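We emphasize that the prediction below concerns an isolated chain of 480 residues; any contacts that depend on oligomerization or on bound cofactors are therefore not represented. The input was used exactly as deposited, without trimming of termini.
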Amino acid sequence: MQIPFEVDPPKKDEDSPLKTKDAIQSDTEATKPFQPPKPLTVTQLTKRIALLLEGEFRSLTVEGELSNVSRAASGHWYCSLKDNQSQIRCVIFRNIAEGLRFDPEDGLEVVVRGHLSVYQPRGEYQITVSYLEPKGLGALQLAFEQLKAKLEKEGLFDQQHKRRIPFLPGSIGIVTSPKGAVIHDMLTVLERRFSGIPVLLFPTQVQGDSAPEMLVEGIRHLNSLRESHQLDVLIVGRGGGSIEDLWAFNDEQLARAIFSSEIPVISAVGHETDFTIADFVSDVRAPTPSAAMEMAVPNKVDLKYTVNQKEEQLQRIMFNLLERLSQYVEAIRQRLSSPAAVVQQYVQQVDDLDSLLRERTRHLLDNVNNRVSGISEKLLLLNPGRELASQKHGVEQLNDRLVRAIQLLQEKLEDSVQQQTDLLDSLSPLSVLHRGYSVAMDSAGKSLRSVKQVQSGEELQVRLEDGTLQTKVKSVKPQQ
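Result of the prediction step, given as a token string:
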């Protein structure tokens, strides 16, 4: 980018005596004092930069690697485009993003076309993208791989969800274009293999922007007729073509409609080498529409031949079984004796069993008697009366010992009590009084220990052995 700059006007010859009007004015201004230019605001500066950049880079094409890819709630995409040394911000507005066949993602090598713009609130320059395509890989192919990876991660391709196609459907639903060779070829195959099976055709476009929505509508409508028309299988398909021609069958909503279908679905899109998302999510993939019809219905001629073969095989099996049963009955009849002889044999067998029963019964009774005798002897030895007498004698001995022990304990306790009584008597103040001593107490009944506790004229009580004296102190004489 070239940076514009001001160019000084050409100088006049200094030796020339003539001066132009501009030169005279310039000389006059040169004599004035210097005035600095008026400063710009940030907004004014940003607008000038925007005019320069956006005017210089109205159209550009840049290649690089996407990073920091994010999608805003408004539907706009924001990302960075970088190489080994530099990076630049990019914005993809919603109207452009809605037209993309694939989703931008980090690490994707792309070619970007657009123009340079300045986001003035932050003073940042960025590329406003008008077109985006993967580098080295078509946009449709990338979108195909992205959708395939997404649905595979959700489990829409898992074999556990695949259903078997009924052996002989009550009726067949077909979602395809009513024009062209596809529907003609399928109906021809049906007529050749098993004529008479009803077919419900939902006519739809198989190419163009409106095709996916119509295909989804066809699958859902035929599912609503499942019970009333005994629809047992659906065929969804078209003839071959380029990836752009087959793109309607790579639609996410169509894939989810096939996955949600209650009727097993056979996909018949393109030729054997063509694969679409519908092929991966369908219950069965047919290489061609004609092959799809061959999968949907058996060959009536083959069925008739098979039924005839099974009928002949069943007849042979039944004939052989009857023959073997006849031979078995004959062999049994020859082995069967007269009824009287059979009865005699059973009578003899009954006698033998009766003798054996009597012998075993007698042996069993002998064993029981022996066991009873042994038990009786044990019971005699364990007679409760004998044990009771022995225990009674032991109780009497223990009772005698207990009586003697109680008597000895009583005597010891009586001696101890007498000793404690004597000790109490010896320590009792009453015994001291009995020997002729007395206790002096003040008017409150508190015993006196010193003459210091008494004053002259104070009334006292004197406790003797047989009573109390009321006295009055005439004088107090301390001991010297």
